[in-house]
Structure formats: structure tokens, C-alpha cells
């Protein structure tokens, strides 16, 4: 490993440490992530030819074509990152539209209860199953919006929000469309729909149930009656039918995104933009027939776009592009090979460690690296729906719950509820880790005694 590569790793580690201690440094995590990203790529550009030759020994472009090659590499990673960011922005806008016009009122009514602990259980199970149908990112946004209507005490709400992260990541792990990594493994013919649901469902459920049982003791008593702020205004603008239409178009549209991807082979963010365009058009038609006052104008889609948390978007951009730099210099591939040698073929140990690492770095390049390192075998643990690939789907999805910045769901909830890294590390990380291990144990038992 060269001094330059060590420098890039050092910058990444230092940046992550600064993000972890954001509350103490009083510097926004997005600023740190952007600086970390630019610093990593600047170091990369000191000697890009060595990295290009290392990745592709047959490269013959020489110094003349090097800049063009590096520019293409950056554009490739930026394009992959932009797909995630546009999906995130589109999903956040859709949920904001539905929420601003009372579309989640009946979901709130389904969850409503006086008991804090009962609400925690209802939120956990609804999040778990919704994330398998939608995705863990979109589900987290929806559930946080609903929780804001039900829980007004912030100290209580961040406990619910933390469980939303755990339940969303666990629910996404057993579904082929519930998480980006399971989508990758599914499309790459490493797992099948029936196989992953049949054998990973119970471990995923266990990984959610164990933290749920523990965290319920953090809540006592009953919830005060929520104040329905502005409910009269919402009722005057849109009637019940219109609110149901917005909810159906918004959430139903999010469910349709995987179908749209299957039918058109277009990336998921295109489906999100389609849903957003339809929802935007429908709301404009509704408003054209309604009496508009100053408050009503503030809830038009063009105004709601200003509510998108750009600091979270930029944080995500910085993190993903910094991880892309680590991928380009070969750090992630070397890490995977090192794990394989260290474990001596123990797939539970390899995937278990990958799951822990996925709470620190993005799980997408980790899974992509594993898919590139290991070939699919005809039979055995490396076969389609073999132990390795199913464990990888579970560990990469659930492992991200151990740190709040370890998953897309965690990042967006962190931005929406302003949960600090330190608070989550102290109160939730150990609970998530216990659930993670419990799920792996249950998977081993299922593979040994059932299938």
C-alpha cells in the first residue's frame, strides 16, 4: 500500500471522526463530508496513473488520455451517486406533498393509541412491512412524518425515530426490492425472490424484535392528545376524497417505482420523477378549483421544494463520492480479500464483519466488491440462494443500523429529526448490535434444522 493510498485512508478516517463528533465540533456534517470528498479525490489526482494501471494493467492510453479517463471515472461515480440523490429528493418531496395536504391523516389514525409502548410496537411492525414493499429510505420518511403528528415530545420521538431506522433496515433485508443491496444481489442472480423471503424473513424479524423488546422500556406512560395544528385549513382546502387521492398517488406511486423499473429498465429515480410529476399536476388541478389564500400558496409544490433538507443531500453526496474514491484506489477490494483470508472460508464470519463495516462505509460498494470478488457456484454456499449470498443480503442491510450514518434510512432520519451521532451511539448502537447477532444466530438455526 503506497503512502498516497494511506493518506487517502487517513483523510477518510479523520473526516468520519469529525462527523461522529459533529455536536462537539459545532461544524455541520455536510461541510465535513464535502471537504473529505474533495480532499480524497485531490490526493488521488497526485498520481492517478498508478491507480488506473493497478485497476487495468492493459491500459494503454498513456498520459495524454489519462485526464479523459479520470474524468470519465468521476462522471461514472457522480452519475451513480446522483441517481440516489434524485431518488431521495423526489421521495422526500412526494411525502412532503402528501403530508402537507393531510394525506397521512388516516395512517395516523391507524397508529393512534394512548400507550407509548403500544405505539412503539405498531410503528415498528408497520415500518418493517412497508420497507419491504417500498424501500427503507422512503418508508423512513413516511413514518417520521406520521410520528410528528402523534408524538410531540422530542425526547420520546427520537426513540421512535431510532426504531424506525432499525425496522426499516430489517424489513428491507428480506425483500428483493426493499434495499439497494438486495436489489443488486437480485438483479445479479445471486438470490431469488422466493429464496430470500423464505429464509431471511425470520432473521430480519428477529433483528427488529430484539431491539423493540429492549427499547420499549425506555417509554412509560401515555401520550398526550396531539394538537391538530392547521387541521381546519387543510379541511377547507382539500376534502377527504382529495386527500385520499393524494395519498394513493403518492404512496401507491412509490410502490409502483419497482414495477416501472421492471417494465422500462430505467433506473428507479426516473420512476420517482414520474410519480412526482403526476402528483404535482394533480395538486395544481385541485388548487385551480379552490379558493387560494396566502397559506394555501405556501403549500404549493413549488414552495414545498424549499423544505427539502439540502444539507442532508450534500452530506450524502460527500460521503458517497468519498467512498467511491476508496473504491477506485482499491481499498475496498483489498479489504474484502483480507477478510476472506482471515476467515479461512467461514462465511458467517466474513459476512458478519462486512455487516459491521457497512455501518461505517456505504454498503453498496461493499456488496458490489463482494459480487466482483466471488463467482456464483453451481452448488454449495456460493450457489444462487446459497448461505453466503443470503447472509450478505441480511448483514449488509441490517448491519447499517448500528451507526446512524450507516444507512440511507439513518442519514435521512438524522437530518429530519436532528439526532446526533453521539446520542445514537450511546443509546441505540448496542441494541442494534444485539439484534444483528440474534438474527444471524436464527439464520444459522434455520439453515441447519429447517432448510
Automatic annotation (TrEMBL):
Coiled coil: none annotated. It is found in: Membrane. GO terms for cellular component: membrane. It holds the Pfam family CitMHS. Keywords: Antiport, Ion transport, Membrane, Sodium, Sodium transport, Transmembrane, Transmembrane helix, Transport. Its main location: membrane. GO terms for biological process: sodium ion transport. The chain crosses the membrane at residues 30-46, 119-146, 158-188, 200-219, 245-263, 269-287, 308-332, 352-379, 391-416, 428-446. InterPro entries: Cit_transptr-like_dom, NhaD-like. Residues 16-384 form the Citrate transporter-like domain. It comes from the Bacteria. One of its GO terms (molecular function) is antiporter activity. It is a multi-pass membrane protein. PANTHER family: SODIUM/PROTON ANTIPORTER 1-RELATED (PTHR43269), SODIUM_PROTON ANTIPORTER 1-RELATED (PTHR43269:SF2). Belongs to the NhaD Na(+)/H(+) (TC 2.A.62) antiporter family. This is Citrate transporter. It comes from Hoylesella marshii DSM 16973 = JCM 13450. The lineage of its organism: Bacteria, Pseudomonadati, Bacteroidota, Bacteroidia, Bacteroidales.
Amino acid at each position: 500500500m503506497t503512502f498516497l493510498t494511506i493518506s487517502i485512508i487517513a483523510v477518510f478516517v479523520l473526516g468520519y471522526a469529525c462527523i461522529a463528533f459533529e455536536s462537539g465540533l459545532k461544524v455541520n456534517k455536510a461541510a465535513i463530508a464535502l471537504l473529505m470528498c474533495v480532499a480524497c479525490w485531490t490526493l488521488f489526482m497526485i498520481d492517478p496513473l498508478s491507480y488506473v494501471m493497478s485497476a487495468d494493467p492493459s491500459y494503454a492510453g498513456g498520459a495524454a488520455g489519462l485526464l479523459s479517463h479520470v474524468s470519465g471515472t468521476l462522471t461514472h461515480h457522480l452519475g451513480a451517486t446522483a441517481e440516489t440523490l434524485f431518488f431521495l429528493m423526489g421521495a422526500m418531496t412526494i411525502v412532503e406533498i402528501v403530508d402537507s395536504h393531510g394525506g397521512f391523516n388516516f395512517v395516523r389514525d391507524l397508529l393512534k393509541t394512548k400507550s407509548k409502548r403500544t405505539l412503539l410496537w405498531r410503528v415498528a411492525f408497520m415500518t418493517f412491512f412497508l420497507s419491504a414493499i417500498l424501500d427503507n429510505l422512503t418508508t423512513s420518511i413516511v413514518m417520521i412524518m406520521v410520528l410528528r403528528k402523534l408524538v410531540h415530545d422530542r425526547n420520546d420521538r427520537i426513540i421512535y425515530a431510532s426504531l424506525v431506522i432499525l425496522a426499516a433496515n430489517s424489513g428491507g433485508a428480506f425483500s428483493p426490492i426493499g434495499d439497494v443491496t438486495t436489489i443488486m444481489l437480485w438483479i445479479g442472480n445471486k438470490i431469488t425472490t422466493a429464496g430470500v423471503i423464505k429464509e431471511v424473513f425470520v432473521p430480519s424479524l428477529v433483528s427488529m424484535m430484539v431491539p423493540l423488546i429492549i427499547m420499549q422500556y425506555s417509554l412509560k406512560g401515555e401520550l398526550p392528545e396531539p394538537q391538530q395544528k392547521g387541521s381546519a385549513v387543510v379541511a377547507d382546502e382539500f376534502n377527504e376524497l382529495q386527500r385520499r387521492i393524494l395519498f394513493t398517488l403518492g404512496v401507491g406511486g412509490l410502490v409502483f417505482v419497482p414495477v416501472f423499473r421492471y417494465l422500462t429498465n430505467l433506473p428507479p429515480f426516473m420512476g420517482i420523477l414520474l410519480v412526482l410529476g403526476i402528483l404535482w399536476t394533480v395538486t395544481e388541478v385541485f388548487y385551480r378549483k379552490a379558493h387560494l389564500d396566502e397559506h394555501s400558496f405556501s403549500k404549493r409544490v413549488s414552495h414545498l421544494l424549499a423544505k427539502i433538507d439540502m444539507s442532508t443531500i450534500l452530506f450524502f453526496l460527500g460521503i458517497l463520492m468519498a467512498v467511491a474514491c476508496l473504491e477506485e484506489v482499491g481499498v475496498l477490494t483489498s479489504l474484502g480479500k483480507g477478510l476472506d483470508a482471515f476467515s479461512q472460508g467461514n462465511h458467517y464470519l466474513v459476512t458478519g464483519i462486512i455487516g459491521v463495516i457497512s455501518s461505517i462505509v456505504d454498503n453498496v460498494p461493499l456488496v458490489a466488491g463482494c459480487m466482483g470478488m466471488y463467482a456464483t457456484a453451481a452448488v454449495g454456499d456460493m450457489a444462487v440462494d446459497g448461505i453466503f449470498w443470503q447472509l450478505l443480503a441480511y448483514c449488509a442491510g441490517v448491519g447499517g443500523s448500528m451507526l446512524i450514518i450507516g444507512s440511507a434510512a439513518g442519514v435521512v432520519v438524522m437530518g429530519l429529526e436532528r439526532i446526533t451521532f453521539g446520542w445514537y451511539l450511546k443509546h441505540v448502537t448496542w441494541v442494534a448490535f444485539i439484534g444483528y447477532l440474534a438474527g444471524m444466530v436464527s439464520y444459522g438455526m434455520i439453515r441447519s434444522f429447517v432448510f
